Amino acid sequence: MDRLRIGAQAFFGFEVVDTLVRGGADVVLDRDDEDRATHTAFNVYPEMLRQVCRDYATLPPLRTMSIEEVIFFYDGLRPELKRATKPK
């Protein structure tokens, strides 16, 4: 079980290239006060999934969705998210 935990930490702890939409633009999360990466799979993909679940009425079963599918659906929301979160 410890190896599984270490493997998950290694995967989810790495920085990812996929951006989030905040403040009307694509963003990469800033590093924390101790200069550790925060733009990681652990932070980025759950936020994407929550937004996708909120905005789409029907989706494949969440337990079977791949990260690629989450990104696909999130990318469909990008223009709307940029308009909705753009500072006024």
Keywords for this structure?
88 residues, disordered N terminus, single chain, mainly alpha, two-stranded antiparallel sheet
The unreliable regions are: 1-8
Number of domains: 1
Mean pLDDT: 85
Class of secondary structure makeup? mainly alpha
Q: What this model shows, in words?
A:
- The structure is a single chain.
- A hairpin with a 2-residue loop joins strand 1 and strand 2.
- A two-stranded antiparallel sheet has the order 1-2.
- It has one domain.
- The longest helix has 19 residues.
- By secondary structure, the chain is mainly alpha-helical.
Map the helices and strands.
Elements lengths: L1 H11 L7 E3 L2 E3 L13 H15 L11 H19 L3
Antiparallel strand pairs: 1-2
Helix pairs in contact: 2-3
Question: What would a concise description of this structure say?
Answer:
Strands 1-2 form a two-stranded antiparallel sheet. It has helices spanning 2-12, 41-55, 67-85, and strands at residues 20-22, 25-27. The longest helix has 19 residues, at 67-85.
